[in-house]
Amino acid sequence: MTSTPRHTTLHPEHAELGASFTDFGGWDMPLKYGSELAEHRAVREAAGLFDLSHMGEIRVSGPDAAAFLNTALVGNLAVVAVGRAKYSLICDADGGIIDDLITYRLGDEEFLVVPNAGNAPTVAAEFAARAAGFDVTIVDESADTSLIAVQGPASVAILHQLVPAEQHGVVTNMKYYSAAPVTVAGLEVLLARTGYTGEDGFELYVPNASAAELWRALLGAGEGHGLIPAGLAARDSLRLEAGMPLYGNELSRDITPFEAGLGPVVSFKKDEQFVGRAALEARREAAPTRVLVGLVGAGRRAGRAGYPVLAGEQQIGEVTSGQPSPTLGYPIALASIDPAYAEPGTELSVDLRGKPETFTVVKTPFYRRAQ
Q: For the whole prediction, is pTM greater than 0.85?
């Protein structure tokens, strides 16, 4: 049996704009509104507007909030300053990755955790199970919260049109991986300077009741700056150019942080016995059996997820994500391979449905914006 995909509060807005939809993590989400290449380029050159309301939002508060998160997640959340954010992972007892997520510290005893769409119920259930013995309150606010992202070099200018003059400095001076309450188009919003595109930009958390008004205000303010709505197709090509992992492709319960290139995210210095610590401590000194690398193609054809990576005729891994890069003009891919072949400059090949094509190992990200 198949369940009906869920709709975000903004679904009618997307339909009115002529979006093509796709099922993503159980949600009916806009794949593109017109040309996915135009949407990709708009984010790189001007700005794109994304509906990310399928993502989860879990509020953790109370005297033990920091200690609880240090036990539930692999990172050290206790050292995060109020108003800042941290990328982290939630792992199982064997060290496998349940999800990657961002946590915002909103107060001394208050955090907002943002898991991925399809994993949000799982993370909420894990939090509930791991909260035993801690003085914390955990509230899953996912169903009541919308998330809109403005990404691209014109993001600051667009927001300046909608926030009061006295808050322009908050927007301009906000550091990467920071958040603050701001008034946008007369609406109270949690504004975060985070994103998944490799560009400067912001993510705006707002109650569902205000989402459509905020969406329309941002579209209107962005008209003179080249902003257009962008779907999941552009979001995926943008994040791949930026070398950012996607859960279900680069990350899964079968992969530890070390194999995903995320070893530095794990804090072994903190005192808490976080879930998965023993398994990860046992593995951190051992060489991983596979590593995540970037690949660039010499031809025009792109490797796709699941395609074999070859050294000669021997399969030494597989592509996890791959497609032609709209910005760079050649095929790029992330691949999980044998560490013996991971040195940048190593020539390998990808089996493109029976036809090997040359690819070269490179450092990621493939694209880095000018500062």
A: yes
